Structures are given as C-alpha cells and as structure tokens.
Amino acid sequence: MDGIEFGVARHENSVTFHAMHPYLRFFCAPFALLLLHLLTAPAYAALFSLQGPGVNPADFRITVLATNLNFPLGMVQLSDGSLLVAVSQPVTSSYWSSVGQIIRLVDADQDGVADGPAAVLYTGLPGGQTSLRLWGNLLFVTGQGVGKPISILRTGATPSTPLTFVGQINVNYPSGGWLHPHSALGIRPTPGTNNSCDLLFQLGSEKNFSNTVRTATISSTQIAGATGTLMGESIYMLTLTDNVTNVVASNLTRLAQGLRNPAGFAFHPVTGDLYFEDNGIDGLVNVNEPHSADELNFIPVAQVGNGTVPSFGFPSNYTAYRTGNVVGGAGVQPLVAFQPLPDPFTGSESEGPNDIAFAPRGFPNGLNNGVFIGFHGKFDGGGIANEENPVVFVDLTTTNYFQIIGNNEAGIGHLDGLLPTDDSLFLADLTATGNTGSGGGTGAIYQIKSLVSPVLSFSLGGNTLQLSWRVGVLQQSQSLSGPWSDVLNATSPHPITIDPTHSQAYYRTRY
Question: Which among 462, 456, 459 has a CA at the least distance from the CA of 474?
Fold first, then answer.
C-alpha cells in the first residue's frame, strides 16, 4: 500500500582504524620497525537486528543518535560531519498540524550519540516536512501537497550559523484534491555548468488507478524563472543557478512519465544514473492488499534531461502483486518489483517505499554495491502491528534483495528517511508509535556504522614498504595525534623507502 505518501562520515581508517574493531596500527620507524597492535571491540546492545544472507551483525555498530524528536524526515550532512534534519514541531502532537524546522545534531566524538540537544537553525516552515537536500550553500526542503512549497535556505559561515531564507517555489494544484502530490526531492550538480544544480521533484497520479488528465503549475515571487506547467504521473527537473545575491531557475524538464508516485531520487555516485522507486497501486478491494508491486527503477545518465521522456507504464502496465505476472508489458520494466519474501503468497511484506540510499562504500563487501530502501508500511501502524515496514537491501549487480531490518521490530514505526555517509547509514524513524496523528516526540535517528574498515595493508621487500588500500586518500603524520596531511598524488600501491636515518612516520587512509 502507499506509505506516508508524501563527522560521523569522516571515516578515517588509519592504520588507526576504529577502536570498536580489531585493527592494525603500524608505523615506519627507524631501523624498519613495524608494530602490530590488536584492540578488542566493546559490546553494544542491539536496538534492532540486522539480518540477511552474508550479513554479520558484528561488522556494525548500531546506536541511537537522537531520540524524542518530532517527526524527523530528511537528513543531510554538513562539512564538519554534523547533521541537519527536517522535523515537524506539532501544535498538539500531530504531524499534520505542525511547524517545520531545521535542526542540527552534533556527534563530535563519533560515538554514535549526539553530544547534546539539537540546535534549531531555522523555524517557521510549513509543517509535515518530507524531504531535505543540500547542494553547495543551498538547502532545499519540502512537504507534501497543497500549501507545502519547496523552500530554499542558505547555510551560514559556519555549520552552527542559523540558516537564512532565499525563496520558495509553489506547486499550485487544481481544486478537488490530488492523491499523490509532490513530496520528494533529488539533487545533483548541473553537468558542465558552474554554480548550478538540478533539482528533482515529482507530481504523481491524481487517482489510485487511472490516467491523470489535469495539470498543476509552479510559480515563485522570489525565484525568477520558476514557472511552468506540470503533468501528472511524472518526474520533473528544474535547474537552479546560485548568484550568491539571488537564485534563478530555468529549464523545467519532464524526465519521466507513467509513474504512479515516484520518490527516493538518488544519483549513482559513480555512473550518475538516476535511481528511484515507484509506489504500487493500492488494493481495489482491500486497500492493504496491493494490486501491483512497488518498484525500483532507474534512468541512465545519458537519458536524464536529453529530450526523451521514458514511460514506465502506469496505469495500464505493472507487475501484479504476489503472482508476479507482468500486465500489459509496455513501458520501461523495473529493476525490481518487490514481492513478499521468501514466498510471495506467505512471506514477509515490504510496502510503501519512501526513500533510497546508495550503500556506504565503507560497508563490508556484499553490502557496498547496492541501495537501501526504507518502507513506510501501514499508514499509521508501528511495531509488530506494521508488518510492511522493513529496510530492504538491493544488490545492484544481481538485483537480488532481502530485508536487512525486518518488519517485526517492536520499537520501529516508519524508517522513512535514509542518509548514507562514507561508513554509515543513518535512518530516521518518523514516529516509533507509527501514528502520525499522535506520535509527536517519538521520532528517532539511528546510525548503522561499519566496523569493517577498508584495509590499509602492507608488504615489505628489502628496504621498501608497499602500502595498498581499496578506497580513500593516503595520509601521513609524525605522530599518532597528528596533524595528518595527504600524501600528494599517492595511488595504491604506494612504495615507501625505509631510511634508518629518518624519523618515524605514521600512515592512514581517509575518505
């Protein structure tokens, strides 16, 4: 069924890997002395279970970064590793009657727990915020539907500086309601253009299971050029140029059509391909028994904004829920059509995808080449009463998928917000009770941090030390306490000549 419809990352794997995992620490000292040091991992109480083929829970640290939050949904990371989070401060306790805020959480010691209460960097946005994206000094935030514009804010001189208002882009709907209005944002730098980004948003279908014939428009009094007509069942892209004193918009482009309610927009960090999910058709008899399967889709980077508008087939073409029958067969077929696991008729359900995140590159092999998808599940259900709300991992090499966080966790409501960093996946639980009407103050943000660092390995031959690493930038220092500096132009493997007359040196990788 539909979902809600609407430092941490500065991993440094030195030859000082993280203290929660056995690691190698070595240094190149006089007389070619190499030291090997093992540390013991402390135990952490699991907040929820990680599961699935090849998943070793001991490879991860799970912590609660922050709790008692008001409907957190949408996270970005700042340059210092702190997080900005979109929350909705309820007037009473409801997500639907609230004031939107942007808060900042700091975890300077990187223990997975915020150092103190969140600081409010901006308030006064419409309530019910659903998405947050950052590009350069600009922050984009939106809610869902009528009266929830796409707001543009500017970051300050430091990460703790309050945000300032730049402008807003209004999405104007015809009267009579719209079942799947805008709610999600995506962002990328505009290829080949300085000081510009491409902002993605959707206008889904007007009805559950029929063609959309009406249109909407965008407008703005502060952002020149933010104008145009929107067709339903579509993904749109708008180019925004930051002139420091103002932001201007141009080139409203329809990227895709034939989509019921697309969201979770993310560009592949290497290929640039656009990945997104689409929400399946609700049950025609029982709303909780979907008519079609939710999907993971993608558009190759060469087709993003090139004038073609690929169709994904809605409403006449889809994959039937449980049977897997392809109905119609026209349009671009999904990468994955999500069915219950392991048996589509009796297995564990995953329904209502809301956000996707590419796997952190510091995750263990097998979990670092794919996407994580958070499923909202039953609209106002939480815990074991919501049997549709897992987090799923999709291997992009095989398109196999499994629930890495199951739908039977008693303390989880809706893990609707995902944020990947170099070595961690942050998850925002909108409300642990699952109830958006009365769940204020029960939201939380979790951190799943990899304890398996990409190994900085070495081999010794004669008076030459060869350093090898999988990802990151090689750094060196005269002391474990730093300061550390990049080894210029170093690529793996990197030779180091050992000279007994030289002072000791320490090496690590950062990424």
Answer: 456
pLDDT for residue 6 is more than 90? no
215 pLDDT above the threshold of 50 = yes
| Per-residue pLDDT reduced to its tens digit, 350-386 | 999 999 999 998 899 899 999 999 999 999 999 999 9
Residue 117 burial by CB count (10 A; 0-12/13-18/19+): exposed, middle or buried? exposed
- How far is Cα 323 from Cα 292, in angstroms, rounded to an integer? 10
Domain residues of the chain, as ranges?
A: 7-41+454-511, 44-450
CA dist 374 and 446 (Å) reads 13
Q: Where are the alpha helices (DSSP H) in 164-319?
A: none
Buried b (16+ CB within 10 A) or exposed e, 220-255: beebebbebebebbbbbbbbbbbeeeebebeebbbb
CB of 474 closer than 8 Å to CB of 490: yes
Of 5-9, 323-327, 468-472, give the lowest mean pLDDT range: 5-9
Would the pTM count as exceeding 0.90? Answer: no
Residues ≥6 apart with Cβ < 8 Å to 6 = 128, 130, 143, 144, 145, 183
CATH topology of domain 44-450: Neuraminidase (2.120.10)
- Identify the DSSP state of 331: S
- The dihedrals phi and psi of 174, each to the nearest 5 degrees, come to -70, 160
Q: Per-residue pLDDT tens for 418-467?
A: 999 999 999 999 999 999 999 999 999 999 999 886 557 777 877 888 88
Reduce the secondary structure of 266-286 to three states and give it as a string. Answer: EECCCCCCEEEEECCCCCCCC
User: Tokens 């709610």 label which residue?
Assistant: 183
Inform me whether the pLDDT recorded for 344 exceeds 90. Answer: yes
